[in-house]
Every structure is written in C-alpha cells, then in structure tokens.
Design goal:
1 helix; eight-stranded antiparallel β-sheet; mainly beta
C-alpha cells in the first residue's frame, strides 16, 4: 500500500508544485496507526511516512528534487522496514544519465527522454 501511495504522489508532484503541505492519516480498526506528510518547497518535496500497527511498521523519510519538466533529478529514501531493516536508497540524474545506490550497489542508466 505504501508503494501505491508514493507512486500516486510522485505522479502528481508536478501538479502539486504550488502546494505547501499535504497530511494523511492511516486508520485501522478505527484507530490512527500512521501518517504521511508531503511538503513541497520550490523544486523539492519531502515525505515523512510512518505506520505502527500492533507495534510494528515502517518509518520512512524521502526527499525528491525535480527539474523544470517535473522529472526527478534526485530521490533519497531513508528509514526502516516493518521489522527494523534499514532502508538507504539514492537515485540521481544529470541530463540523460541516471544512477541509483541501493545500500551496497551503484547502477547507471542512460536513456533518451525517459528514465529507465
């Protein structure tokens, strides 16, 4: 569910450029178990996400930088998974070159007008 929300938010980032802050709550059994806050300032959006249901859940912080076309030039994700595993991911793009670092690796991708 988290991935779906993040993807939906990311697809709408260009249209949210004028917005300041969006707050969402996650409810389970009539109880608030989590939150997501997305704050946009200029070309940067930060997302704070956390869910604790029955004492477990992910805690994630994201930072997304966009270019003039609304495409990501940098995306940093840090936090922990439901059971405490560390999350440390980074993507950056300059021109037609992009790369990502997923904890222990670095991958480079070259594409025309699209990220691959």
């Amino acid at each position: 569910m988290r991935k779906l929300l993040i993807v939906a938010l990311a697809l709408n980032l260009p249209s949210l450029a004028l917005a300041d802050t969006f707050n969402y709550s996650f409810i389970s059994g009539e109880k608030k178990v989590g939150h997501m806050t997305a704050e946009t300032k200029g070309d940067q959006t930060t997302i704070d996400f956390g869910v604790k249901n029955n004492g477990r859940g992910p805690t994630i912080a994201e930072s997304i930088m966009l270019d003039a076309a609304g495409l990501p030039t940098e995306w940093i994700i840090k936090g922990s998974t439901t059971f405490g595993g560390k999350i440390a991911e980074h993507f950056s793009r300059k021109g037609t070159r992009g790369g990502d670092a997923l904890r222990c690796d670095w991958n480079r991708t070259r594409s025309g007008d699209h990220l691959a």
